[in-house]
Hints:
Strand order of the largest sheet: 1-2
Shape: elongated
Number of helices: 2
Distance between the termini: 48 Å
Radius of gyration: 15 Å
Helix content: 40-55%
Number of domains: 1
Mean pLDDT: 81
Low-confidence stretches: none
Order of helices and strands: HEEH
Number of strands: 2
Largest sheet: 2 strands, antiparallel
Amino acid sequence: MGLTLSELHSARDALLRARAGGVRRVRDQNGEEVEYRSDAEMARALAALDSEIAALGGKPPSSFHFATSKGT
Length: 72
């Protein structure tokens, strides 16, 4: 059973925060712990999450979509 789109986004956000903070050990919501050996390994994990999110039809977290109008 795969993760939902919401769970994938949460996992990606947590991994991105850990990477930005210089943390190599991450514990998920289930209490499972993963220790990354390098920043490159964390980058690969983020890329894998991004591809899974894209495969489920989720928008990449780095894109913005604007809806504009002239008003009337």
